[in-house]
Every structure is written in C-alpha cells, then in structure tokens.
Amino acid sequence: MEEKISKIKYHYENKKYCKILRKFAKNSRGETSGFIVDYSENFIIIQESNDFDILGYFVFPISTIEEIRYNNFDKYYEKILKGEKLIENVGELMGKESRRMGVHFNFAPVLDINTNPKNPIIGNRSFGENKVNVTEKAIALMKGVQNQGVFSTGKHFPGHGDTSIDSHLGLPTLSFSKEHLDKVELYPYNKIIDEGLVSVMVAHLDVPSLEFRQNYPTSTSYNVVTNLLQKELKFDGLIFTDALNMKGVSKFKKPGDVDLDAFLAGNDILLFSENVPIG
Q1: Using only C-alpha atoms, what is the Rg of the chain?
Q2: Can you spell out the DSSP letters for 91-156?
Q3: Which of 100, 197, 233, 263 is most enclosed, with most CB atoms within 10 A?
Q4: Interior CA angle at 79 toward 74 and 83, to 5°?
Q5: Whose CA is closest to 253, among 229, 230, 270?
Q6: Helices (H), the chain
Q7: Could you give the count of Cα atoms lying within 13 Å of 185 in the half-sphere of its Cβ?
Q8: Catalytic annotation present for 166
C-alpha cells in the first residue's frame, strides 16, 4: 500500500461502551460507518491511516477511537460537508484504495438532490437539498477520485432525490415538467459533465415528461439514455444501468427482454443481469 496502514487494538473495561460500539458496527454493515471495525468481547480493532480511516464507500476524518462514539456519529457526517478541499482529499483516498485493490470504477458521486423528506433510499448518500451545494461537493469528490486514475460514476440519472419509493422495491415516479428537471435534477449533470465526469449510472424511474410510455423505466428508455443524456447533455462517456434485478425494472420486463431494451436504449454496461446467456 502506498500509505502505511496499521491495525491498533483498543481495550476497554467498560463493557457497556463496548456494547455500544458493537451495535454501531452491526448497524453500519460496512457501508456508512467511515471506519473498519472488528470487535470481540472487550476490544475493538480499527484499521487506521495517518489522517483518515478508510472504507470502500465512505471516508471520514477520524483520528482516535474516542471520537467514534455511536451517539456522536452525526458530527462526522457534518465534517465531510464543510468544504470542497476536504471532500477532494477524501476522493483521493478513495481513489488510492480503489486502485490498490484493482477497482477501476467508483460508483460515486451521488448527484441526487435530496428534496423529498419521504425518500426512503437516498438519504445521506446525497450531499443535500441545495442543487449548487450538491454539484460543488460532487465535483470535488469526482476530481479527487479521478486524480488517482480511478473513474467516477455520477448517479442516479436523471435524478432520484425527489422520490418516495425505493427503486429496489418498485418504480418511483418523477411527475415534474421538463423545464423543472432542467433547472433542478439535471443541473448537477450539466456542470459535472463539463468538469470531466467519465461515466453515469441511469436509474429506474418513471418520468412521464421524458418517456411517454407508462411504467417504462428510464434505464430502458432511448429518450432518456440516448436523446437526453448523450445528445442533449452531450455526454460521451460510459453509461451503466442501475442493477437490472431491482424491482423498479425487473417487475415490468422478463430477463432477456430487459437486457435487450437496456442496450437498445444506449447503455454500455448492464449491472446485475438476471440471465446473462439470454440477455
């Protein structure tokens, strides 16, 4: 590894405190904690670097075990939102770790503008509810990752922030006009594409102003993938579908048909095809 990482053991006599940390590790499931935790009866092992603790999805500036108390976690999420330079540094560390493991694409940044309080899936994966703030922070993260030779993927096109359904479970609808989409949901894509975004992931959404066919997911729509993303927004990078086993698309088309439609729509790479030979 280019950056020396050491494993440090911390022993605690306070079993109640250890119980809190074990609960934190279980709840995080390795996706949102910002650090790698191995736990046993009375000690915690943390994978630690000089400045940041490293995890595949999120990286937070945590220097000591005393700062990762379960009930204080929110303040570390706030730290990551304070400035573009910090976020770019985080992206660089994510890029270094991805490259070290042979990972070529990082499915980040999330470009969704989290304006719907009933949204069950985007949450703190988004940089917030302000389109300018989301865009600036996303560009900083992208630059950090791509500076390390790893490709960033903006998602979830054309915008999953103002939805109330999880596309893993159903097909969310965006009922906005094209004018609204241009001003809000598509704003980050217009900016970040100009800054050199390499790839985009297309979501499974029902957007009547972009696709007139009912229950026709954006991920399989030629109007969305080719006409909007490639022609109108002039994006010429790689295009991924979101996972094709998600109910937002798989409940409307059978395996094989969904793969064909996704390719015909203009996608380059299909994620989680349910039947590769048929597809």
Answers
A1: 20
A2: HHHHHHHHHHTT--EE---B------TT-SS-GGGS--S-HHHHHHHHHHHHHHHHTTT-EEEEEE
A3: 197
A4: 145
A5: 270
A6: 15-28, 74-80, 84-100, 131-146, 178-183, 187-194, 222, 247-250, 257-265
A7: 26
A8: no
3 state SS of 226? helix
What's the token pair of residue 98?
């991805």
Say if residues 211 and 240 touch (Cβ distance below 8 Å): no
92-134 confidence digits (pLDDT tens): 989 998 898 899 999 999 999 999 989 999 988 899 999 999 9
> Tokens 């094989």 sit at which residue?
256
Out of 53, 112, 162, 242, which one is annotated catalytic?
A: 242
Give Cα 98 distance to the centre of its chain.
Answer: 15
Helices 131-146 and 84-100 sit at what angle, rounded to 10 degrees? Answer: 40
The per-residue pLDDT for range 177-223, each reduced to its tens digit, is 999 999 999 999 999 999 999 999 999 999 999 999 999 999 999 99
Q: In the annotation, is 51 catalytic?
A: no
d(CA 211, CA 223): 6
Catalytic residue, chosen from 168, 180, 182, 268, is 168
Q: Is the model's pLDDT at 49 over the cut of 50?
A: no
Enclosing H/E stretch for 45: strand 43-48
Distance CA 101, CA 94 (A): 11
Alpha carbons 265 and 270: distance in angstroms, whole number = 11
